[in-house]
Design a protein that fits this description.
Chain B: This is Molybdopterin synthase catalytic subunit. Chain B: One of its GO terms (molecular function) is molybdopterin synthase activity. Chain B: Keywords: Molybdenum cofactor biosynthesis, Transferase. Chain B: Pathway: Cofactor biosynthesis; molybdopterin biosynthesis. The complex is a heterodimer of chains A (86) and B (159). Chain A has 86 residues and is α+β, with helices and mostly antiparallel strands. Chain A has two helices and five strands. Chain A has a single domain, classed as Roll (Ubiquitin-like (UB roll)), CATH 3.10.20.30. In chain A, 19% of the residues lie in helices and 27% in strands. The termini of chain A are far apart. In chain A, 34% of the residues are buried. Chain B has a single domain, classed as Molybdopterin biosynthesis MoaE subunit (Aldehyde Oxidoreductase, domain 3, Alpha-Beta Complex). Helix content of chain B is 36%, strand content 31%. Chain B contains five helices and eight strands. Chain B has a four-stranded mixed beta sheet, sandwiched between helices. In chain B, strands 5-3-7-8 form a four-stranded antiparallel beta sheet, with no helix packed on it. In chain B, helix 2 packs antiparallel against helix 3. Chain B is globular, with a radius of gyration of 16 Å. The chains are: A alpha+beta (86), B alpha+beta (159). Chains A and B meet through helix 1 of A and strand 3, helix 2, helix 3 and strand 7 of B.
Chain lengths: 86, 159
């Protein structure tokens, strides 16, 4: 059975993609943050905002994550631009 | 050691007073207040909207405070970060640190701000004369946070 994750997009990335988030059944082989990002970017057009060359950060289950962070046990994955608070 | 993420403004004096209220062991209170700034450029900044990641934001701030408390002996810490639409001159963030001595309070306050700038999920959207734009992260914020990995805490915080 494919695992379903909640994906969230924030700030300028949310605007570029035109949606705040989605639910996605992870396809076979999409088992890391980097693989999920590649999978989403491959949708083309506005999803190019997630292309490898773009400055995008990620979190898994609300903790900062890296490209090689596994999605095993992930309920919520977020993609966003570098943070600018403070 | 409490953090708050809120739309409402805060009272700097009351927050500072609360950090040492009823205690006899606090010898130093350091604080930082960040404000919305109109940079005075041609476009100007007429307003700023802070977006955040509810849930993760609070956890990320708490983690930063916990890490500061591991590095220095701190008696009390308070972090407040606002979100929503703010005008130039309005307060965005408060960090207050109570310690026995000034070295620990200054260093921990700066550490918390440096880490907040690179690890807490907030994003600024500026409105100006030419419209709105998302603020880009600055390289200097990354290097400010990175210096704490290089033993600067030994130099700055433990004199």
């Amino acid at each position: 059975m494919m695992a379903e994750v909640k994906i969230l997009y924030f700030a300028g990335l949310r605007e570029a993609l035109g949606c705040p988030g989605e639910r996605l059944a992870l396809p076979a082989g999409v088992d890391t943050v980097g693989a999920l990002r590649t999978h989403l970017a491959a949708r083309g057009e506005r999803w190019a905002a997630l292309d490898a060359g773009r400055n995008v950060r990620a979190a898994v289950n609300q903790r900062m994550a890296a490209a090689d962070t596994p999605l095993d046990g992930a309920d919520e994955v977020a993609f966003f631009p570098p943070v600018t608070g403070g | 050691m409490t953090v708050s993420v809120q739309e409402a403004d805060f009272d700097v004096g009351a927050e500072l007073a609360a950090l040492s209220a009823g205690r006899r062991d606090v010898g130093a209170l350091a604080s930082f207040v960040g404000l919305v700034r109109d940079d005075g450029g041609a476009d100007g900044v007429s307003a700023m909207t802070l977006e955040h990641y509810p849930g993760m934001t609070e956890a990320a701030l708490q983690e930063i405070v916990d890490e500061a408390a591991q590095r220095w002996t701190l008696l009390a810490v308070r972090v407040i970060h606002r979100h929503g639409r703010l005008l130039p001159g309005e307060r965005i963030v408060f960090v207050g640190v109570a310690a026995a001595h000034r070295g620990e309070s200054f260093a921990a306050c700066e550490f918390i701000m440096d880490y907040l700038k690179t690890r807490a999920p907030f994003w600024k959207y500026e409105e100006g004369a030419q419209g709105g734009r998302w603020v880009d992260a600055r390289d200097s914020d990354g290097s400010a946070a990175a210096r704490w990995e290089q033993g600067w805490d030994e130099v700055e915080g433990r004199r």
